[in-house]
């Protein structure tokens, strides 16, 4: 039996505790030796019962905090019900938990989900020292009345610290001096736009929150320093130290400011003061999330507004910006002439009040993303349809837009400017670098960072090329797939469809009302067919079910009836089930990718950890999720002096591995797992601990309905999930494991629909592998250090045989050194070895010509290779591009986390039906559907591991185009190598789904000298089928007498091993796994046992490596041989499949080590 133990992790006393106890939500045995009768009890009742038992036994310690939080939540929920008459919804419970936990955040949800009710109820719950800020007097009066109805003591229009003070932003600005000494406990802002837009208002709010001016100035200074010196040559240690000082000063004060909660915001902060406020509060006001659309999208090819007459009252007309204010007035008059009351929706809120009260039938505003008509209207009952007068579009002067490197690249390509040299430099730019280049070009300034400034100069040169080319073309209109360029008078303009404005504006007609989404109707009066077609394409990409219907095919009378029906009390609306959750992934990149995939997430930074709040809509199910990264493993086997290297093996056969939190020294960058916060390597106390992450995850887990652990779908990921579940189960009993093999919307939704329990067989397999690695590694490493009197020695069950192969080849290579002649004939190379230089020179002198005869040829069928597995990808990337395995794995990890490829640690060639459809879509798009031959390659259950394949039918050129169009789409920073590896994976996969090719196999007789005749078979031609996307090497040797190219040099009759050779051997001999190929070679390099040759990436054993291997193989052959290692790998697989007992295998290993090692340890000459 294996009993996993966590050091210092009891939720009550902080002592050692078993995983079983934690998973059952219990404190350790010291706190609570015996416990009965709590199986099947809900989490809240369990916490209360445990609290009372601990209290009765005088054992209560930290568990009091958990009990306090749970009971406080219950108290505020009951208070909410008493005041409102109904139970808070799931989302309201989330907000209430955050509120009573004193968190600052944004309520990023649309109208209709109870934001205002929640804020008001909590304000009444606090009772005093509350400031509630609203944008207008009329709204202030409404809020005051509602608060009084809820039983609050209200100060309406002025600040009174004994009450709930409701004030306007105007009051805050005018009376800032009189309230400088007042620091409320809680500040609620109903609409943050006025704060975000105005630096002056931000100053006032900062003062109200109790932030001293010097701390505020420090935040502003920190942002300026980061902006100025991030890419500068002047980024000295002194400036770094100053930045650290400012960060520390701000961090020390963060917990002392008032709680701030924002009910809604429609724009994001851009000014430096607003960014400073974000830094100080740990979150930024985020825009309201778009949950779903319930809209009929239509269009007509004219600007006829007479449709208003048929649709009637309840409309919003949004006029494309280029028509100007005068057209708004003309349209208002036209609508009034039709017999309707119309009003301009340009500023303020009076128009909205009149519209809400039915005094106004039709609103007329500008189709501007920041306009109040597009973002400031929430009228579920009154607003039924939106008419766009002209396609919403963004229009900018082209020559100004060219300051953006990506726009320059797209425009240049469109008009035929050769960007081959510049493209790669632009594609790898980070968002910060892009912005810096853009502003430096606009302002005509140089950049302190030399590399970026050189690129700025290149961009200026290409801008002049584009301008000249445009003048040369002389066309009035140029059309691309994503934008249109027009010439008006002497100026060129670039025009894009404004999809966000269309989404936001049309969304005004489909709002949440009584728990359901009303039906909305949208009509675009098309004034530019090209821009409309681009808009359609973009909308269908974002919402695949979007279908723009011609207005001529619409029954307006029927639509009008449906719109009105949808707004009745019991009307036909789309209803949702909203639940809250915590989604834990391994890496920050993956967290950001998933959060961005479904919505524009809001971000809170808690203890330097970003928490992304995103909305995931799955039909009628809506998840409001906090997405956080654990950053991989949170625990590792302890380095403390416990048992045998951290694992106790008891006489009874029970094995207790002790795990400690992982810590990282920020000075020497080494990780360790001991109780002390002092680095055992360098003595520094500048240490980062996983406890910070665990505390955050526990806090978040307490606030949500469910916890979803989405670590990688392998044994390492399962162990991470097991550890996380152990630490979080006392805080939330609804902990689930979800897995996916690609980061796509479809895969994430499928995972959330099918939550699972943790697979303990996989966990046990990982535990056995890790303990075996610790026992073997530490035992042999210590013996090596003693033997060779040095540090940085290491050995392992897999590393040692791999080192043996490399040592063997290196020694044979060195013992067979001589001279080599390379004979090149039209790309076909022949290698001749000579032991003596004289013989080599004689051979070359006699080699004047080579005679080539074609003996025969035959037609053959060439079969495509299966898609990549981990080993074949590493082999191919090394053979083609000479890339080391660890670099290829890093790039593949990036591509996976960006959602571009499936999981890259796999030994399966299986392709799912989803993958096959992707191949079909791409080949259809490329006109190659006749070559489509669907293959699954291996029989496998749906959802099981797949080969490495792309997640979409997007080739590398289309991917580059996507990045040019939206540089911020992906959460990784691309390099040239990312495109190379993606292209390799993509083409290999597509080839695997295509027909056979036809090849010609030719047999040649090559006569070098009198006695040197070489018979060889070569592929001389290949065409058709998969060759169209994945070419193979062919040789067309000239016939007759040919003068060859000859090169000579020192060499050996033996060939050194390359990365690809080693990985092939690991695979074939059964000692490699997808997670270990690259790591094994990397570890051998790190220990100084092998080096990689620069030119051809051969792996060469060092003297140190040779000595280490000779010692290990002579003393411990039975422990580290290929056969023993392969058997262990097989046993680990059997444990994962529940065919073998994990404890049995560990006891065997322990016995094996004791038998072989202990006698050697007793020898004096180790």
Provide the descriptors you would attach to this structure in a database record.
globular, Rossmann fold, 43% helix, 1166 residues, alpha/beta, single chain, 42 helices
Strand content: 15-25%
Please tell me the CATH architecture of the largest domain by its name: 3-Layer(aba) Sandwich
Number of helices: 42
Strand count, sense and barrel status of the largest sheet are: 7 strands, parallel
CATH class bucket of the largest domain: Alpha Beta
Domain Topo IA-type catalytic: 759-1157
Subunit structure: Monomer.
Protein name: Reverse gyrase
Subcellular location: Cytoplasm
Describe what this molecule looks like in 3D.
The chain is 43% helix and 19% strand. It is of the alpha/beta class and 1166 residues long. The chain has six domains: 5-67 and 577-758, Rossmann fold (3-Layer(aba) Sandwich); 295-392 and 498-575, Rossmann fold (3-Layer(aba) Sandwich); 405-475, no CATH class; 762-816 and 1056-1161, Topoisomerase I, domain 2, CATH 1.10.460; 817-863 and 998-1052, Distorted Sandwich (Topoisomerase I, domain 3); 870-995, Topoisomerase I, domain 4 (Orthogonal Bundle). The strands form ten sheets. Strands 11-12-10-13-20-9-21 form a seven-stranded parallel sheet, with helices on both faces. Strand 30 and strand 31 (671-672) form a beta hairpin. The longest helix is centred in the middle third of the chain and has 29 residues, at 760-788. It is globular, with a radius of gyration of 34 Å. The mean pLDDT is 90. It comes from Saccharolobus islandicus (strain M.16.27) (Sulfolobus islandicus). Residues 580-743 form the Toprim domain. It is an enzyme of class 5 (isomerase).
């Amino acid at each position: 039996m294996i009993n996993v133990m966590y050091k210092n992790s009891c939720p009550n006393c902080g002592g050692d505790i078993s995983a079983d106890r934690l998973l059952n939500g219990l404190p350790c045995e010291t706190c609570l030796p015996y416990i009965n009768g709590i199986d099947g009890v809900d989490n809240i009742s369990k916490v209360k019962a445990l609290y009372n038992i601990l209290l009765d036994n005088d054992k209560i310690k930290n568990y009091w905090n958990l009990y306090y939080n749970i009971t406080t939540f219950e108290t505020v929920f009951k208070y909410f019900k008493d005041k409102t008459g109904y139970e808070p919804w799931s989302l309201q419970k989330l907000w209430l938990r955050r509120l009573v936990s004193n968190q600052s955040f944004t309520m990023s949800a649309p109208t209709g989900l109870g934001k205002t009710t929640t804020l008001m109820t909590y304000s009444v719950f606090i009772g005093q020292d509350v400031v509630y800020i609203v944008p207008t007097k009329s709204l202030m009066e409404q809020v005051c009345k509602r608060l009084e109805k809820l039983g609050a003591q209200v100060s309406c229009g002025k600040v009174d610290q004994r009450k709930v003070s409701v004030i306007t932003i105007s009051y805050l600005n005018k009376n800032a001096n009189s309230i400088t000494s007042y620091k409320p406990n809680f500040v609620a802002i109903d609409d943050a736009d006025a704060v975000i837009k105005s630096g002056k208002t931000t100053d006032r709010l900062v003062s109200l929150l109790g932030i001293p001016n010097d701390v505020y100035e420090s935040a502003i200074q920190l942002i300026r320093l980061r902006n100025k010196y991030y890419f500068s040559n002047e980024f000295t240690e002194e400036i770094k130290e100053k930045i650290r000082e400012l960060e520390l000063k701000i961090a020390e004060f963060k917990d002392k400011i008032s709680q701030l909660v924002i009910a809604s915001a429609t724009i994001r902060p851009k000014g430096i003061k607003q960014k400073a406020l974000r830094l100080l509060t740990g979150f930024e006001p985020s825009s309201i999330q778009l949950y779903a659309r319930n809209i009929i999208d239509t269009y007509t090819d004219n600007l006829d507004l007479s449709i208003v007459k048929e649709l009637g009252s309840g409309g919003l007309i949004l006029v494309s910006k280029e028509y100007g204010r005068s057209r708004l007035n003309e349209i208002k008059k036209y609508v009034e002439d039709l017999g309707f009351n119309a009003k301009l929706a340009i500023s303020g809120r009076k128009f909205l009040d009149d519209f809400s009260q039915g005094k106004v039938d039709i609103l007329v505003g500008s189709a501007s993303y920041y306009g109040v008509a597009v973002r400031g209207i929430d009228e579920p009952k009154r607003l039924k349809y939106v008419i766009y007068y002209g396609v919403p579009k963004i229009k900018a002067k082209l020559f100004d837009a060219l300051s953006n490197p990506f726009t320059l690249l797209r425009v240049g390509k469109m008009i035929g400017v050769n960007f081959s040299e510049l493209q790669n430099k632009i594609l790898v730019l980070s968002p910060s670098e892009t912005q810096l280049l853009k502003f430096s070009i606009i302002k005509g300034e140089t950049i302190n960072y030399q590399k970026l400034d050189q690129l700025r100069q290149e961009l200026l040169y290409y801008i002049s090329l584009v301008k000249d080319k445009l003048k040369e073309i002389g066309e009035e209109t140029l059309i691309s797939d994503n934008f249109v360029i027009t010439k008006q008078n002497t100026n060129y303009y670039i025009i894009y469809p404004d999809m966000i404005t269309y989404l936001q504006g049309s969304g005004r007609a489909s709002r949440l009302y009584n728990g359901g989404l009303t039906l909305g109707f949208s009509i675009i009066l098309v004034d530019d067919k090209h821009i409309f077609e681009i808009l359609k394409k973009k909308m269908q990409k974002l919402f695949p079910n979007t279908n723009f219907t011609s207005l001529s095919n619409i029954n307006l009378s029927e639509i009008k009836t449906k719109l009105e029906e949808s707004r009745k009390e019991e009307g036909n609306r789309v209803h949702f089930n909203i639940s809250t959750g915590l989604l834990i992934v391994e890496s920050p990149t993956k967290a950001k990718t998933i959060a961005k995939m479904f919505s524009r997430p809001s971000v809170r930074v808690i203890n330097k950890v970003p928490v992304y709040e995103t909305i995931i809509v799955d039909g009628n199910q809506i998840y409001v999720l906090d997405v956080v990264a654990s950053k991989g493993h949170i625990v590792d086997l302890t380095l403390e002096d416990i048992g045998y290297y951290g694992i106790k093996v008891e006489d009874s056969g029970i094995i207790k591995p002790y795990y400690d939190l992982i810590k990282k020294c920020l000075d020497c960058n080494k990780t360790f797992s001991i109780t002390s916060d002092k680095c055992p390597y360098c003595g520094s106390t500048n240490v980062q601990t996983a406890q910070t992450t665990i505390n955050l995850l526990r806090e978040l887990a307490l606030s949500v309905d469910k916890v979803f652990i989405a670590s990688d779908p392998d044994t390492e990921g399962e162990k991470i999930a097991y550890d996380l579940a152990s630490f979080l189960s006392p805080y939330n009993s609804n902990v689930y494991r979800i897995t996916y093999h690609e980061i796509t919307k479809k895969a994430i939704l499928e995972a959330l629909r099918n939550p699972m329990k943790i697979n303990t067989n996989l966990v046990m397999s990982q535990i056995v592998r890790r303990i075996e690695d610790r026992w073997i590694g530490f035992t042999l490493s210590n013996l090596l250090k003693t033997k060779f009197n040095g540090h940085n020695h290491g050995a392992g069950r897999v590393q040692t045989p791999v080192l043996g192969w490399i040592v063997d080849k290196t020694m044979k290579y060195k013992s067979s050194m001589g001279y080599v002649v390379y004979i090149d004939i039209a790309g076909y190379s022949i290698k001749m070895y000579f032991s003596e230089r004289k013989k080599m020179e004689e051979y070359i002198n006699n080699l004047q010509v080579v005679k080539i005869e074609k003996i025969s040829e035959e037609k053959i069928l060439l079969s495509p290779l299966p898609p990549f597995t981990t080993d074949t990808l590493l082999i191919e990337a090394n053979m083609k591009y000479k890339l080391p395995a660890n670099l290829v794995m890093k790039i593949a990890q990036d591509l996976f986390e960006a959602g571009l490829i499936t999981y890259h640690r796999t030994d399966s060639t299986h392709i799912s039906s989803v993958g096959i459809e992707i191949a079909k879509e791409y080949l259809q798009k490329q006109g190659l559907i006749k070559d489509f031959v669907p293959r699954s390659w291996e029989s496998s259950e749906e959802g099981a591991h797949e080969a490495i394949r792309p997640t979409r039918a997007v080739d590398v050129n289309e991917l580059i185009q996507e990045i040019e169009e939206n540089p911020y789409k992906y959460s990784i920073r691309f390099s040239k190598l990312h495109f190379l590896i993606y292209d390799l994976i993509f083409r290999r996969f597509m080839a695997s789904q295509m027909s056979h090719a036809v090849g010609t196999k030719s047999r040649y007789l090559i006569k070098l000298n009198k006695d040197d005749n070489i018979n060889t078979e070569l592929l001389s031609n290949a065409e058709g089928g998969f060759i169209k996307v994945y070419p193979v090497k062919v040789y067309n040797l000239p016939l007759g007498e040919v003068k060859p190219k000859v090169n000579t040099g020192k060499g050996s009759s033996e060939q050194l091993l390359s990365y690809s050779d080693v990985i092939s051997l690991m695979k074939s001999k059964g000692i490699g796994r997808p997670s270990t190929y690259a790591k094994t070679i990397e570890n051998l390099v790190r220990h100084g046992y092998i080096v990689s040759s620069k030119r051809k990436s051969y792996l060469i054993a060092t003297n140190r490596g040779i000595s280490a291997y000779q010692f290990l193989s002579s003393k411990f052959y039975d422990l580290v041989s290929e056969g023993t290692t392969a058997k262990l790998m097989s046993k680990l697989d059997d444990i994962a499949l529940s065919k073998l007992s994990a404890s049995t295998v560990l006891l065997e290993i322990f016995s094996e080590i004791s038998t072989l090692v202990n006698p050697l340890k007793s020898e004096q000459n180790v």
